[in-house]
């Protein structure tokens, strides 16, 4: 079970560490405004799953975290909340991706692995659209603080069963899934109809964090803030 004091300690430490290097974080619930912002900063596209032009987001269903360095945009990341109940997440992903990425064949996501983690359903927080402005790259520790702060915001806003994302093979192999706090890392999670949608391919990994692992991670770091 999550501990609110753990959230305060870990989140506060991340905010302080970012502030010490001239960064501040803003939470934005207006997805259209956030999308316009990241596009103006050089992001070429936003996936339908996290676009306000394809979804009716409210303050209760999602938000963006925006990182600024000395007042200038540096990075951003988005998340959305879905309560899928006990529906198979494989079925859910196939059905929703068909709508988000229409394909001439009528089928977009052909299959999802049966090796999804046990109990991978329920109250789900999906993370995506991590974007670092060109010229602002280079600090892995800064991204770690931003992503751990995002986990704290998710835990404080919703009672989730899982937090998850789809990541490129090269980023997982470079260790970023671990840097971002994901304890489940599963390769080759999905097979796409060809040609696959832009930015998607069969080598993507499912990276995830269960509620139990989330609570454990935050409790561990709350007692070892220097390791953040």
Q: Topology of this structure?
A:
Elements: H1 4-20, E1 23-28, H2 31-40, E2 62-69, E3 72-83, H3 89-100, E4 109-112, E5 123-132, H4 140-157, E6 162-167, H5 169-173, H6 176-179, E7 184-186, E8 190-192, E9 205-210, H7 211-222
Parallel strand pairs: 5-6
Antiparallel strand pairs: 1-2, 2-3, 3-5, 4-8, 6-9, 7-9
Give structural notes.
The chain has seven helices and nine strands; from the N terminus they run αβαββαββαβααβββα. It has a seven-stranded mixed beta sheet with strand order 1-2-3-5-6-9-7, sandwiched between helices. The protein has a two-stranded antiparallel sheet with strand order 4-8. The protein has helices at 4-20, 31-40, 89-100, 140-157, 169-173, 176-179, 211-222, and strands at residues 23-28, 62-69, 72-83, 109-112, 123-132, 162-167, 184-186, 190-192, 205-210. The mean pLDDT is 94.
Entry keywords:
228 residues, alpha+beta, seven-stranded mixed β-sheet, two-stranded antiparallel sheet, 7 helices
Distance, first to last CA: 21 Å
Care to count the β-strands?
9
Largest sheet: 7 strands, mixed
* SSE order: HEHEEHEEHEHHEEEH
What is the compact description of this entry?
With 228 residues, this protein is α+β, with helices and mostly antiparallel strands. It has helices spanning 4-20, 31-40, 89-100, 140-157, 169-173, 176-179, 211-222, and strands spanning 23-28, 62-69, 72-83, 109-112, 123-132, 162-167, 184-186, 190-192, 205-210.
């Amino acid at each position: 079970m999550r501990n609110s004091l753990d959230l305060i300690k870990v989140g506060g430490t991340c905010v302080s560490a970012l502030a010490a290097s001239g960064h501040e974080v803003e939470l934005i619930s207006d997805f259209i405004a956030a999308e316009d912002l990241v596009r103006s900063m050089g992001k070429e596209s936003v996936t339908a799953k996290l676009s306000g032009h394809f979804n009716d987001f409210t303050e209760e269903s999602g938000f963006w975290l925006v990182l600024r360095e000395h007042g200038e945009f540096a990075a951003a990341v988005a998340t959305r909340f879905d309560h899928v109940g006990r529906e198979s997440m494989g079925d859910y992903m196939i059905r929703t991706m068909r709508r988000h990425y229409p394909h001439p064949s009528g089928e977009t996501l052909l299959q999802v692995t049966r090796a999804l983690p046990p109990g991978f359903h329920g109250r789900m927080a999906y993370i995506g659209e991590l974007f670092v402005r060109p010229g602002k790259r280079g600090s892995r520790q800064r991204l770690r603080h931003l992503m751990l702060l995002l986990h704290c915001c998710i835990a404080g806003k919703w009672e989730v069963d899982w937090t998850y994302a789809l990541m490129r093979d090269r980023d997982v192999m470079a260790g970023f899934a671990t840097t971002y706090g994901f304890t489940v890392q599963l390769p080759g999670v999905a097979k796409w109809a060809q040609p696959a949608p832009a930015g998607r391919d069969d080598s993507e990994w499912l990276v995830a964090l269960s509620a139990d692992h989330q609570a454990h991670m935050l409790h561990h770091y709350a007692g070892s803030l220097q390791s953040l």
